[in-house]
Amino acid sequence: MQVGLFVTCLVDMMRPRIGFSTLKLLEQAGCVVVVPPDQTCCGQPGFNSGDRESGRAMARRFLRTFESFDYVVAPSGSCTGMIRCHYSQLFPEDPALQQRLDALSARTFELTDFLANVLKVERLDSPYRGTITYHDSCSGLRELGVKTQPRRLLARIPGVHLKEMSQPELCCGFGGTFSIKLGEIATRMADNKCHDALDTQADAIVGGDLGCLLNIEGRLRRLGDRRTRVLHVAEVLAGPEPEQD
Amino acid sequence: MQLTSSLFKRNVRHKLVDASLQHNMKRFGGRFSQARAIAMLEVDNLEAIRTAAAAIRDRSLAHLDSYLMAFEERAMACGTQVHWAETAQDVNRILIDIARAHHVKKIVKSKSMVSEESGLNEAVAAAGMAAIETDLGEYILQLAEEPPSHIIAPAIHKSVEEVAQLFSEKHHTTLQTDIPALCREAREQLRPHFLSADMGISGGNFLIAETGSVVIVTNEGNGRMVTTLPRVHVAITGIEKVLPTLNDFSTVLRLLTRSATGQSITNYVSVLTGPRRDHDRDGPEHSHVILVDSGRSRLLGSELQLALRCIRCGACMNHCPVYQNIGGHAYGWVYPGPIGAVLTPSYVGLENALDLPQASTLCGACQVVCPVKIPLPELMRVLREKSFRLGLRPWHERWAIRAWRFAADHPRLYGWMTRLAVRLLHRMGGKEGLLHRLPGLDGWTDGRDMPAPSGRTFRDRYRETRP
Questions:
Q1: Most-buried pick from A110, A177, B110, B127 (CB within 10 A)?
Q2: ipTM here
Q3: CA gap A86, B23 in Å, rounded
Q4: Would the CB atoms of B451 and A221 count as touching at under 8 Å?
Q5: Mean pLDDT of the B16-37 span
Q6: Total CB pairs under 8 A between chain A and B
Q7: Alpha helices in chain A (DSSP H)
Q8: Domains of chain A, with CATH numbers?
Q9: What's the CA gap between A150 and B151, in Å, rounded?
Q10: 10 Å Cβ neighbour count for B464?
């Protein structure tokens, strides 16, 4: 099974470790993983800001880059949501192109969804130990139905103790460019999320989308919390990667 | 209502530091959404009903002209006079004409958001008549001289203590904070008005085409008084509110009350068909309906038509994390929250409400709970596209989006740019690995740090590890 890894632009730039963790998880599960070098961004930042052409240009690029794979996997519910739910409306004038894109979108998966529901992974040998709380990122949750997948996987790691916050499904305030355009509301929403998460006394806040994680961690650090870790679920599931920074 | 949507960002800044609003919003918090979740458990085929309700609304809108004409014909046959108001100003003019024709001096009103669109109370006062709000929330706001901040719970931004203070000041009574006592106090104030008013104004949750009826769905009983006691009743509602049949209404009603307040049904559901007939014990002598367009017909046939499905339950704002943090006034017009972010720019002009479609993380919570399945995030995106296309967004935002698109479509350039950016940001992050300030990204760094990148992109590192 040949899997194309769509690293996503945020992971590529901000936290490559998540990409390597994803790679490790997929390879451990027996996939042949290829990282096409010409991949960039899914187009969501522009698309959600009103530039439809961003979506179209990136959808064409995505098709060129990934069409040859059996599956495409991304460590992000947000980028996968863009591909799965929004690429489908971009080329009404070109049904043939749209059809190819739809076929590819249907083979594109968010990481935990792919591990739990397609690969049906049962063994994970992560040495991770600690109490975590899980934030459900909006696009993954509401566009892709990613809710139990990460929890089922995390439950297979003996050292992980999951303690739910009171509103894990409440938006953290990231919202892509929203977090900059309406930063004050985003900050308040991040604040609410941080307090809800900290109330669980977990040592780590874990989620499946780096955007949300940067938003949450950014607020936590500004509030002076240097202790609570903010991790991508791939990092927890794969265990620590030897530091390559 | 005075339009301040163009000042959304300024409004937000004020609301976020308004301690009493923040306190009241926290207390309101998830109350309606929890009640909704529990009430929906009673409905074992919720998805099927939502689908049916959405289809009913779509059918009503697809044949809006014929259903409205059918409504007019039946309503007139029952003795109701039907008036058509193309603009908000027309609403006020028509209403004042009706009032003058009936020699009206005092008007009692039950809740009508449509009348807020045209600033009806102010217009009525200017014409020398008094209009008294009788919905408890609206009554409180009339005393406080504030607009509503929620479409079904208009005074939700106020605490009991604030209401108690207000009542004591305006009624010249001793301060009391017991809620039933405050309700009694309001009732005592309102009763003489009900008895002496010549005209009652109500909204209309729905218009029923097959019977020519106006339906109102209420809890407080004031709606019954307003529509039956005075000589003249005028219902004011939007043209999109028509439903083909009473049967359709019963389907939509199952979702409306549960979505709004989490009630299986409200205390009162009134189906008003014409003025008092000879054998009727009560009811008005004259019955009028004002059908308001005021921007609605512009949405028909457009990408935003789905917004007209709205049955005004308020679930979208009850579940919106943005609304919950800033309250309804920040949105600067009659309709707040996600539905307001779509309706306000559509009704008052996108250029007057530019920030509203941006005022959402597109988290999708509104769409999930909308009883008639309005794809609110999608509609906000449609408005964002329009803003972008018309060049209404700030130049630096448009430039940044185009630059990113160009770079992301040229992988070598993208690789080079990201390599450089990441190296620079890593250095700036120092030992701590945190960026406290980022030029051009103040929106982020004013309230949050940015965790610094590790210095090299995934692509670069991958190329080395897997040659």
A1: A110
A2: 0.96
A3: 38
A4: yes
A5: 93
A6: 205
A7: 9-14, 16-28, 44-48, 52-66, 77-81, 95-106, 111-113, 138, 144, 148-154, 178-181, 183-198, 210-222, 233-238
A8: 2-118 (3.40.50), 130-238 (3.40.50.11810)
A9: 38
A10: 9
Cα-based torsion angle of the residue sequence B63, B68, B73, B74 in order, rounded to the nearest 10 degrees = 90
Q: Yes or no: say if A35 and A237 are a contact pair by the CB < 8 Å rule.
A: no
Tell me how far apart the terminal alpha carbons of chain B are, to the nearest angstrom.
66
- Tokens linked to B180: 């039933």
Pair of tokens at residue B346: 């559509």
pLDDT at A245: 42
Q: Which residues does B101 contact at the CB level (< 8 Å), separation at least 6?
A: none
CA-to-CA distance for B37 and B369, rounded, in angstroms? 9
Q: Give A241's pLDDT tier (boundaries 50, 70, 90).
A: low
- pLDDT exceeds 50 at position A43: yes
User: Can you give the pLDDT at residue B333?
Assistant: 97
The string of pLDDT tens digits covering residues B379-390 is: 999 999 999 999
**Is B129:B104 a contact under the CB 8 Å cutoff?**
yes
At residue B186, does pLDDT exceed 90? yes
Q: Which CATH number is B33-297 given?
A: 3.40.50.10420
pLDDT, mean of residues B9-14: 97
Q: Which residues lie closer than 8 Å to A68 by C-beta, 6 or more apart?
A: A4
| Range B398-406 average pLDDT | 96
Q: Residue B156 pLDDT > 80, yes or no?
A: yes
**Strand duo B130-133 + B106-109: pairing:** parallel
Q: In this structure, is the dihedral angle defined by the CA atoms of residues B101, B102, B107 and B113, taken in order, positive or negative?
A: negative
Contact B25, B353 (CB under 8 A): no
As given in the structure block, the two tokens for residue B276 are: 């008092």
pLDDT tens, position by position, B93-147: 999 999 999 999 999 999 999 999 999 999 999 999 999 999 999 999 999 999 9
pLDDT band at residue A242, thresholds of 50, 70 and 90?
low
Amino acid letter for position A145: G
Q: Show the tokens assigned to B200.
A: 């009652």
Q: What CA–CA distance (Å, rounded) separates A203 from B217?
A: 49
* Beta-carbon contacts of residue A114 (< 8 Å; ≥ 6 apart): A26, A71, A73
Helix, strand, coil percent values for chain B (each to nearest 5): 55, 10, 35
Of residues B321, B393, B422, nearest to A171 (C-beta): B321
- Cα-based distances in Å from B55 to B59, B79, B208, B310, B374: 6, 31, 16, 12, 11
Compute φ and ψ for B344, nearest 5 degrees: -60, -55
Test A175 with B414 for CB contact under 8 angstroms. Answer: no
Task: Tell whether A173 is within 8 A of chain B (Cβ).
Answer: yes
Per DSSP, what are the bridge partners of residue B125? none
Are B363 and A175 in contact (CB < 8 Å)? yes
* DSSP secondary structure, A69-124, as one string: SSEEEES-HHHHHIIIIIGGGS-TT-HHHHHHHHHHHHTEEEHHHIIIIIS-----
Q: What percent of chain B has pLDDT over 70?
A: 100
* Token digits of residue A141: 């949750």
Nearest CA in chain A to B439: A180
Phi first, then psi: what are they for B392, rounded to 5°? -90, -15
Domain locations in chain B?
33-297, 395-465
Report which DSSP code applies to B171.
H
Nearest-CA distance A146 → chain B (Å) = 14
B contact test, residue of A7, A33, A49 with most B CBs within 10 A: A49
The number of residues making up chain A comes to 245
pLDDT above 50 (res B347): yes
Give the best residue of B361, B401, B457 to mutate against chain A (max A CB count within 10 A): B361
Strand boundaries in B342-402, DSSP class E: none
